[in-house]
Amino acid sequence: MKLKFLPVAAALAAAVISTAAFAQAKEQFFPVLVYRTGAYAPNGVPWANGYVDYLKLVNAQGGINGVKITYEECETGYATDKGVECYERLKGKGGGATVFQPLSTGITFALTEKAPGDKIPLITAGYGRSESQDGLVFKWNFPLLGTYWVAADVLVQHVGKREGGLDKLKGKKIALVYHDSPYGKEPIPLLQERAKMHGFELITIPVAHPGIEQKAAWLQIRQSRPDYVFLWGWGVMNSTALKEAIATGYPREKMYGVWWAGAEPDVKDVGDGAKGYNALALQHGAGIAKVHQDILKLVHDKGQGTGPRDEVGQVLYTRGVISAMLAVEGVRRAQERFGRGKIMNGDQVRWGFENLALDQKKLDALGFAGVMRPVSTSCADHMGAAYARIQTWDGTKWNFSSDWYEADSQIIKPMVKSAAEKYAAEKKLTRRTPEDCQS
Amino acid sequence: MLYRENGQFKTTYARDQQVFPILQDRIGIALLLLVAFVAVPLLAPEYLFRAILIPFLILALAALGLNILVGYCGQISLGTGAFMAVGAYAAYNFQVRIEGLPLVLALLGGGLCATIVGVLFGIPSLRIKGLYLAVATLAAQFFVDWAFLRVSWFTNDSASGSVSVSGLQVFGMPIETPEQKYLFCLAIVVIFAVLAKNLVRGAIGREWMAIRDMDVAASVIGIQPMYAKLSAFAVSSFIVGVAGALWGFVHLGSWEPAAFSIDRSFQLLFMVIIGGLGSIMGSFFGAAFIVVLPIVLDNAPYWFGIPIDTALAAHLTFMVFGTLIVFFLIVEPHGLARLWSIGKEKLRIWPFPH
Amino acid sequence: MSHREIGDMILAVEDISLAFGGVKALTSISFDVREHEVRAIIGPNGAGKSSLLNCINGVYSPQQGKIRFRGESFTQMNPHRAAVMGIARTFQNLALFKGMSVLDNMMTGRNLRMRSNLLLQALHFGPAAREELQHREFVERIIDFLEIQAYRKTQVGRLPYGLQKRVDLGRALAMEPVLLLLDEPMAGMNMEEKQDMCRFILDVNDEFGTTIVLIEHDMGVVMDISDRVVVLDYGRKIGDGTPDEVRSSPDVIDAYLGTTH
Amino acid sequence: MGSFLETLLGGLMTGMLYSLVALGFVLIFKASGVFNFAQGAMVLFAALATARFAEWIPHWTGLSNKLLINLFAIGVALLIMIAVAWIVERLVLGKLVNQEGVTLLMATLGVAYFLDGFGQSLFGNAIYKIDVGMPKEPVIALEKVFDGGVLVSTEDLIAALVAAALVGLLALFFQKTTTGRALRAVADDHQAAQSIGIALNRIWVIVWSVAGFVAIVAGVIWGSKLGVQFSLSLVALKALPVVILGGLTSVPGAIVGGLIIGVGEKLSEVYLGPHMGGGIEIWFAYVLALLFLLVRPQGLFGEKIIDRV
Hints:
Chain A is of the alpha/beta class. Chain A has helices at 2-21, 41-60, 80-91, 105-118, 148-163, 182-185, 188-198, 215-224, 236-247, 264-267, 290-300, 315-338, 346-354, 360-366, 409-427, 434-438, and strands spanning 27-34, 68-75, 122-123, 141-142, 173-179, 201-207, 228-232, 255-257, 278-281, 357-358, 375-376, 387-393, 398-400, 405-406. By secondary structure, chain D is mainly α. In chain D, a hairpin with an 8-residue loop joins β1 (139-141) and β2. The chains are: A alpha/beta, B mainly alpha, C alpha/beta, D mainly alpha.
């Protein structure tokens, strides 16, 4: 058996490599890790469609300074070991992968260990490990636009404001209903920090994968009567949470979801019941901006749309678009230094991400006016922005219901530093020097 | 014509008791090892190592461990993933808490902890039989998963509950490149395979099989069911634990309990049954089949340049996989190992049918 | 008949009663077995013969009564202790280890005598290997004795019934038992198979001087080979003595007239 | 006290649904000795079929009456499940007669993989709605007695009632109808059943169809609660401790076991959970069943196994 499989697999793998080898000279290869199947598919699919559609758009507009984009999808099913297999499968293709975006905290953890060896950057826009903001330790991780600590911090700020000042949170109860996995646990340290500062009580209620069994959780909530519920769910867990909230009569107005619990699939089939439910917006919300019109015009109208047309402009779709845009702009930025119209390798792209300077003008030019705020990263700060807004579901669509909040770096910075230090110590890494930052 | 035992007379029982009494088999194995240890590291591309060979070896080891329990002692377990998890997290703790502890010791330590947990959850087997036991072992699965998510001490208080290791080395040699990792796993797997083979062909192996085949008769002969069953659980979960540690340390590098979920347990049971219950070699066949098949299936479209929607491809993989499972169970319920030995028999008497 | 002198009492069953739920299987049975003798237990189906053997080697535990074996007395045996003390047993409807080879089946009979620990066995080294060999040699002697050399490596599941019966006997003999309990060793055999089996049993009794308690239906066989006979009917003892005494006992006669032919 | 009652009720109602899924296991195990791990996949498959046809039928027929649509959809789903049962018998079980229990178990896992893939590539893999007009808003009872009253989720209540009705129906079917008796005969002894002229394969098709029907009902109930989506196939896991607690071969066992597990789970989560960091219900059920088995290895109502020599 083994003997039989070795040559077969070897041959096939060889075939893959060789095709990669003589891949057309002027193409930049983007691997696309997706999950279009399994428990989390309903949320994974629109993101993937947005991501791919944007790559198609860039090609339709002539590529990155003339460099065409090639891409290949690989199905991870949100499972870590499948994710690793996909990573290994795609990292060598098309002359070398540009950047990976696993859209899974679990996979991110695994790839964080592998990426440095292969010199391939990871973008984890709005997820991943919060301490990876510290670029001096996490050279290859880019949690652009925000981490879970940012999200949690903004939520606390918002409910504080709603109470009329953070000091008013004293004696209040906030329940965190979270997906029992690294993803769901990320915000806990920050919330505990804030709880200490403002003297509110934090009740943590884990929900086991995939999150369809929440009756007990919500009975607890009904009994402990928290003033607010933060929902850290993904996939079917979100809609289930809303349904149980209805079934146990917890007011949706007092529920706040993270930006992964604030999209159409989470509320659609709950319908009117979800009216009043709030969720964070990772900068952008839903709706058609210029970039969407371009995609409709240059991709969908050409019959090349990846998903259904009416999906364009949805929350997760747009997040996919933004993620792809960030990846592409990293390459563009790298080209400015290492040569326009050239193919960038992982190391060069990393520099690009480290020196992103997407000001409002650039964003408007790209068609992202009104979708997001400027992002500017540095060697030390791999996040680039820490802003978010609250959006509210009115029964048919998401509307913004707050203006911008910026996460309090006073609180997050030290946490990031100490966590990153701990990681560096475990891995026996030394912080990067200014010289290294120039590279 | 080449495969014959004619003229190979065994003059002593010692000769007769060799693992591979037939010369050609010995040569075959020698060649196989030569290829595995020398040729493969030289020839195979990185993807083959990282995505196929290393997972194959580690899961084959786990399947080997499970096979001792299910195949030899007849105790069905659906908690294998849990024992892998115990091995992995225990090894992790040994590594981070004991400064400069050699990797091998950490792995074996992981194995030992898995043994303890395994025996603990094996105790019900003294009263519960068959499918009841199988489902009961799920208790281990879910409890252990939960414990590693909840008790932050196990994960060295990492905020996310995910742990990671790096800078692996054995006797001063680093285990970083795929080749090194592959050879390290291969060495461990070969050693364990030999040890396991010795066990199952020795006294304890006979006790396990006796319990499996006819427990009353076994006890009449003087075999103590308690000792036989618990020793099977112990040996099995030790091997499984080491495999788990390897899975975390060598393959993933960073993991969370989800890496050892119930799906893993089922996957391993598949390997054992498809490969062949009560066969060391079967564990390898099964592992190869279950690891390689899905990858081949969902790579196939790209290799043959058929553009196919990712979701559809994944679903087709599911369907083909399920169908093949059923197909093999129908064709040869005793697993690939049986097919293999039948093939050998045919070859031995070829060209004469009888 | 064989010429070896019967020794003194080795096994005594004293007033044994056994019941499953309400059903009485045995009611106050008593009898004894002397060293080196061949003791037969006969009786119609469901007379409780097998249950009696199961009590003797502790598979069942009787509600009342004692079993005295080699001077020690037990209110209830357990299989392991019985085995350790040298009681071996074959089964009415074969209880061989179907998945294992003839050789391995017999080797299990030696397990009690194997001392080397798991680690040594795993390394298959030094004492472990040597031990394995010694016992292999012993088992080979039994294989020769039972004339099944050709089937050493065959899975017992694949053997014809008659041969399986032999393996069953061989497995018991491998234990070098002091007392051998045979549960219908000739059931379902044809004439010459029976003759072979008789020969084996007598030889065992002769050469190894093993005491034998056997259950058998075939009256002819019983009368030929056994020194003394116990007769059971509906779980009660209705006769005990030499074949001739039993044959002439009225209770036995009508018990049998009542059931057979 | 009020909260205790709520938890108890919640547990009982969830338990009723567990019983329903468990029943699927028991039926098949009784008649064919197969421990059917495909039960979960069948629930998902049935739910997907129902949900999608409920969407499509209006398009095709222009039908507008919700009740009719749902009935039609369920009807179609039932036909499909019968087809599945027939195919499974033909292509899988029929070929695996008197194999080891564990081999059959693995075969059903194979079937499960196939159904998961097939169902989703046929019907899609987004979240779909089953709207059988279940009331969503809860009612508060006994407000006089306890402060805050006792909250009763009407949806769960109805679901539980439907489940209970179905369970009762099946119990009757087993006791009264000739087919039911035939099934029981098969369960007790395959050879004997055949000898008195019961065609096994026919029986198996029937049983799997009945299990398919149970899957539909379970699928519709869970589906309208959670939305129809891959995760539905995981509800079957919740039924495993139920079947071993109740005994693999006992219909009443499935019912009582379901209630015990349901209540045990919820009480443990709500009252023990907070002290243990939460999320314990996932293993509590199993540990409960395990401890129970130590006392009664054959489960609550399972037949005792005596091995004779």
